[in-house]
Design brief:
By secondary structure, the chain is of the alpha/beta class. It contains 6 helices and 7 strands; from the N terminus they run βββαβαβαααββα. The strands form 2 sheets. It has a 5-stranded mixed beta sheet with strand order 3-2-1-4-5. Strand 1 and strand 2 form a beta hairpin.
Length: 192
């Protein structure tokens, strides 16, 4: 599940991965613009994201991280909305991931500075999803989900600004692990 946090509309998209290929399940947005009380708005975000997680039961939830802008109050409101959506997913035991807006756009369009309309048009081409040009938050949510799929299924990983090949974790060779995995062997210690 991908979520594009917002304080007027919060977009979301759910992908199913079948045979390694992403297929859209649902995309939509949570309408928040009529809720005046900022605390009631946060409670509604928690309720709706919880309901979506319960309904679609995603394996993982990815969110767009807040961008740094000039308006500190807007950033604070957006950060709160993101945090509440994150808490809703975490309260259901879901793993949560975050992606910068430029990373999401780059994953979908190849350009970190792409317009929302370009992202939506490519999602229509890649996944066959329809979109309403007046409500691009839903396609932004789906873009977060698709970005997460691309990143999590890629054999390449970025570490410290350099791209390397993702490696399987090494098996531990500690004595504690050896003993724990071979309980039939008794280890005798010398007495001093």
């Amino acid at each position: 599940m991908g979520i594009d946090p917002g304080t007027n509309y919060m977009g979301y998209g759910v992908l199913a991965i079948e045979g390694g290929k992403p297929k859209p399940v649902v995309l939509g947005d949570i309408d928040l613009h009529k809720i005046a009380d900022p605390y009631r708005k946060l409670a509604y975000i928690f309720e709706r994201v919880s309901a979506l997680v319960e309904e679609y039961n995603p394996d993982e939830v990815a969110l767009e991280s807040p961008f740094f802008g000039e308006n500190v109050q807007s950033m604070l409101k957006l950060g709160r909305a993101q945090g509440v959506a994150m808490a809703a997913a975490l309260s259901h035991g879901k793993q949560v991931f975050e992606y910068a807006p430029t990373r999401i756009k780059q994953a979908i369009t190849g350009r970190g500075g792409a317009a929302k309309e370009q992202v939506a048009a490519l999602l229509r081409s890649m996944l066959g999803v329809d979109y309403n040009p007046k409500r691009l938050d839903a396609t932004d949510g789906m873009a977060v989900a698709l970005c997460h799929h691309f990143v999590s299924s890629s054999p390449l990983v970025s570490v410290g600004g350099k791209t390397t090949v993702r490696r399987a974790p090494k098996a531990s060779s500690s004595w504690e692990n050896f003993v724990a995995s071979h309980p039939e062997r008794e280890i005798k210690q010398k007495k001093k």
